[in-house]
Amino acid sequence: MADRLSSLPDKILQRILLFMPSREAASTAALSRRWRGLWPTPARTVILDTRSYGRDCTRDAFFHGADAALAAHGSVTSLAVHVEAESIEHGPDCIERFMSQINGGRRDRHHIAGDVLGHPSCRDVEELSVTATLPAKSSSSPKRMTARYRAFQRKQGEVEMPEGPQYTGCYKLSLAAVPSSALRVLRIDNCKDLTPAPGTALFPCMATLWLRRCVVSLFTLRDMIAGSPKLTALRLEGVYITTKVPSPDDQVGNYYGYGRHNGYGYRNADEVRRTVGWRP
Amino acid sequence: MEVDKGKGEAEETRKVAEADRDTVTLKSSDGKLFEVSKEAAARLSTVLAGMIAGGSIDDNGTDLKQIGSEALENVVDYCNKHANSIPSAALISSSISFNTAPFKEPEEWERKFVDRLSHDALFDLVEAANFLGMERLLDVTCHKISEMMKGKSPDQIREVFNIKNDYTKEELEEIRQELAWAFYDD
Q: A164 and A96, same structural domain?
C-alpha cells in the first residue's frame, strides 16, 4: 500500500492538522521528514482538548501543553478550549476545579482564564470557543435550580423542558478574561456563571455571540450586547437568563427566567430581542 | 382555462431548459460521463464555477483528465446530495460565524458519505476536491482523515497510512525533546 497521505500537498496536510487538537497535530512531526515543519500552520489555530492527553489528563500536562502550543504560534487567530469530564479526574465540580483550581482561597498555579485566555499569544484572537462536557450522571448538577426552573415552567406553561442531563453549566467564566479587542465570534458552552467584567466590557468587532446551556444574568447579557456594536447574530441555545444578580448570602439565587430559548431562529425571537435589548 | 395556463407554463419552462440546461456533463479521465446539477457544481466548486461562467463547459462532456471515474462519481454524488439537502441550523450558523477548521463540523450525511469510502477512494476524493477547488468537500474529507489520526501514537498513525519513518534514531530523539509536551509516554 502506498503512503497516499504523505503524498498530499502541504496545504492539504495542514488542513487536516487544523481539525486535530494542537498536541496531536504537533506530534505528527515525528511521523517522517515529510511531516516536519507543517505545524504550526499558517491558519494560527489552536485547539486545546483534554481528550488528546489520554484518559488521565492532569492539569500540569494540559496547561504545560497549552502554553507550548500557544507560544509556538506567536499570535493566535482562532482558539478552541474543550474540557471533557471523561478525560480528567472525576468528582464534584471537576470541570470547575480543572479550569481554575482554588486552594484555600488562593489561586492555584494554573487557570484557564489567566494562563490560556490571558496568554500573550491570545491577544488578537478572532474566534474563541470554550466548551466542556460533564459525564451523563453528574453529582454537580444544580438540582435546586432545576427544581426552581421546573416550577417556573409549570407557572408559565410555555417553555419546553430541556432534553438530556438536567444541568446547566459546570464552570465559571469571567468576561474580563476574554480577549476582546479583535474577537469576532464567541461561543461558550455549559458555563454556569458568566460573570461581567468590571465596568462595561467592549467587544468592538464581535459579530456572533453563541451561548449554549449557559446561565447568564440579564444584566451581563445586556452589557455584552450593548458593548458589541457590530453584533449580527445572537444564538442562545438552552440559555438560562437570570434577572437578579446573585449575592453571596443568596444561596439559591432568584431565578426568574425568560427561561430557555431554543436554537436557531428562536421561537420567541422578538421576545428575546426585546428582553436583552438587542436591535440589529 | 386552468389547464391551458398550466400547459403554457410547462412549455415556457421547457424553452428555458433548452436554452440554459440546469445540469452540466463531466467526463472522467477514463471517458465516463456524469451529469451534475449546474447550480450545485457552481456553488461547491470554484473551478467548475469558473468554467461555467467562462462558457468553457462542453455539452458533450467537459474533460476532467485528472480525475478517475470512481472519484468523479463520488464528486457528482456529493454535489447532487448537497443540492437536495437542507443545511441544518448548526451548519448555517457555524458557517456564517466561523472561518476556521475546528468549527466546521461535517453534517451527519456528509460523515456517512465519507465513512463508506475505501482508503484509496477517500484519497482519490481528497485529490479531486483539491483539483476542483471544492472547499466544503475538502473540509469533510480532511476532517475524516483527521478522525483517522486522532488518539493514535505516531507508530499507530504510520501503520494506518503506511508512512515510512525515514528519521534516524538521533533525529527522532531530537524532535521528541523539542516537542516533549506533545508526546504521550509511548
A: no
Pick the residue with more confidence: A213 or B28?
Answer: B28
Cα gap A149→A152, rounded to integer Å: 5
Q: Do A20 and B149 touch (CB under 8 A)?
A: yes
Query: Coil, strand or helix: which one is A208?
Result: strand
Q: Cell numbers of B77, please?
A: 454524488
Domain boundaries, position A18: 9-136
pLDDT, tens digit, 9 for 90 and up, residues A110-132: 788 888 999 999 999 999 999 99
Provide the pLDDT confidence category of residue A93 given band limits of 50, 70 and 90.
confident
CATH topology of domain B2-150: Potassium Channel Kv1.1; Chain A (3.30.710)
Q: Does residue A157 share a domain with residue A240?
A: yes
DSSP state of A116: I
The residues spanned by each domain of chain B are 2-150
Residue B163 contacts A, CB cutoff 8 Å = yes
* Per-residue cell: A155: 407557572
A74: left (phi over 0), alpha (psi -120 to 50) or beta: left
Of A19, A21, A32, the CB nearest to B163: A32
Are the Cβ atoms of B149 and A24 closer than 8 angstroms? yes
The model's pLDDT over B119-177, given as tens digits with 9 standing for 90+, comes to: 999 999 999 999 999 999 999 999 999 999 999 999 999 999 999 999 999 999 999 99
Phi and psi angles of residue A82, each rounded to the nearest 5 degrees, phi first: -130, 125
Q: Per residue, what are the HEC states of B8-68?
A: HHHHHHHHHHHHCCCEEEEECCCCCEEEEEHHHHHHHCHHHHHHHHCCCCCCCCEECCCCC
User: Which pLDDT score, from 0 to 100, does residue A33 have?
Assistant: 97
- Which residues 202-221 of A have a C-beta within 8 angstroms of B? 207-208, 210
| pLDDT at res. A138 | 42
Q: pLDDT by residue (tens digit) across A189-219? A: 888 888 887 776 789 999 888 888 888 888 8
ipTM attached to this prediction = 0.84
Phi, psi for A141 (deg, rounded to 5): -70, 135
pTM given for the model: 0.81
**Under an 8 A CB cutoff, do B93 and A127 touch?**
no
Is the minimum CB–CB distance between B105 and chain A shorter than 8 Å? no
Tell me which chain A residues have a C-beta less than 8 angstroms from the C-beta of B181.
Answer: 23, 26, 61, 64-65, 68-69
